[in-house]
Amino acid sequence: MSYLTAEASGKGKIAVELTPEEALALTGVKFNGNPEVKAEAHRKIRKAFEKTFDFQYQDRLD
Description:
- The chain has two helices and two strands.
- It is α+β, with helices and mostly antiparallel strands.
- A two-stranded antiparallel sheet has the order 1-2.
- Helix 1 crosses helix 2 (36-52).
């Protein structure tokens, strides 16, 4: 199994452009008609982090 580690000092900022529905979904609002709203918001945030910080894949022994 592999997992991500990030070298981030916590001092930087990232900018992510979300739709109002995506922002609401991240606060816990459920969109029964479109469950992909929250997943898309998570993808956008992850992509912004990957562009900003140094992510490395590492193997983990279970």
